[in-house]
Amino acid sequence: MEKNLDEKFIVTGGTPLKGEVSIGGAKNAVLKLMAAAILTKGETLIHNVPDLTDVEIMLNVIQDLGTKTHYDKEHKNIRIDATDITSVTAKYELVSKMRASFIILGALVSRCKEAIVALPGGCAIGERRVDFHIKGLEALGADIKIENGYVHAKATKLTGAEVYLDIPSVGATENIMLAAILAEGETRIQNAAREPEIIDLANFLNAMGAEVSGAGTSDIIINGVTQDKLHPIEYTTIPDRIEAGTFMTAVVATRGKAVIKNIFPAHLTFFNNKLLKMGANIKLIEPTAIEVSAKGRLNTVNFVTQPYPGFPTDLQSMAMVLLSTANGVGIITESLYENRFMQVPDLRRMGADIHQDRNHAIIKGVKKLTSAAVSASDLRAGASLVVAALMAEGTSEINNLYHIDRGYENFEYKLKALGGKIERINTSQIVEGGYNEARI
After folding, report:
1. What backbone torsions phi and psi does residue 156 show, to the nearest 5 degrees?
2. Residue 112 among the catalytic residues
3. d(C-alpha 216, C-alpha 200), whole Å
4. Which of 144, 243, 318, 430 could disulfide-link 249, Cβ–Cβ 3.0 to 4.6 Å?
């Protein structure tokens, strides 16, 4: 897929967001479900699939293995027929575009007893090593070599084992889960990641015929089953908690009032509590819908990113935007990634008062942000700059939209439906004296 290098957002700030918005399927869940679908022969149907660049990349990855797929964007579902796996190689030109595609390693080793997968790429938010993935697969009996930028895993037989993760890595937890599904005996993952996306993957696998228990806790147990026990299924992906948090932030930042639909509030408990302490109002109006609003200047609170159920690193940049105009001085500590303050220089361009000291950001709230030309450096930083532009005075432009399109479906249209003044333009369609109305 071509990167939309010629596109940018033109955002005029100062308008409170009002109305309602529906959250799409969770990117970080559906990508893993797509990989898990290759474990069984036959056609699996996944619903609530967002229209994202990352989904297209994962489709290309699994198609390259020999699966037959059909992506119905209108009805937001994907059909994956993995009856025939004709290749065990996930090529660099695909895997390098998106780190999450590395999850194919565990699925291929499980199904085919062999996998050749390129070392992953993705957002440049810091080093995210694959040591824990490899350690887990080796514990199950896989022989692994890393050569020429590829991980080559092979196993005549996989056998259940106890695996302790030094940190609760989401990707490693998922890769080990997938590899253990068809292993002989019991596998126990200790200090496992607890994210809702892990639970969604376990529910998907169990519906397929696997035996996974403990997902959502730090102790996951997988009882291996034989290939004939697995079968294709129909499954609906959970809502995207990070997209939900992004829209909640946008509403609060612009001092608006909106209903956020298709949301699992329990997935955002820690984030919701922080917003309440800052002075936002959050009201549960249905089991899967909340009303969010804010008036006046927000209070300052401190944030420390932690593995789930702590404050999510994917919403750290959103917290920074809120603190940029809050009353007082707030501190954000990024404890998970060493290079995830990439939005700081651009927020400073917009008038934010931010001092960065390694993994700490000290934000002194200013009265207002002002417009500027900025660039998305990664997915979440890019989305936070859009939110900052919506609350700023004047008209801003946000470049490098391909980062944002990796994880936000119809972002500008959803914001426009809430009253946000945002347009996507192609820089090749700029006319003298301003921007024309031609858009992609």
Report:
1. -70, -30
2. no
3. 9
4. 318
pTM recorded for the entire structure: 0.94
Handedness of CA 205, 211, 212, 214 (dihedral sign): positive
Residue 352 has what DSSP assignment?
Answer: -
Which residues neighbour 147 within 8 Å (Cβ) at sequence distance 6 or greater?
none
Residue 161 φ/ψ, nearest 5 degrees: -155, 165
Residues paired with residue 260 on neighbouring β-strands, in sequence order: 21, 290
**Whose structure tokens read 């015929």?**
209
In order of start, what are the domains of the chain with their CATH numbers?
7-24+239-435 (3.65.10.10), 27-236 (3.65.10.10)
Nearest Cα neighbor of 175 from 208, 135, 225 is 135
Do 398 and 385 form a contact (C-beta atoms < 8 A)? yes
Give per-residue pLDDT as tens, 66-79: 999 999 999 999 99
Q: Which of 17, 98, 108, 123 is catalytic?
A: 123
Residue type, 196: P
Cα torsion for 213, 191, 102, 146, to the nearest 10°? -130
**pLDDT(436) > 80:** no
- Residue 395's H or E segment, with its range, is strand 395-399
Q: What torsion do the CA atoms of 61, 64, 70, 72 make, to the nearest 10 degrees?
A: 30
8 A C-beta contact, residue 39 and residue 212 = no
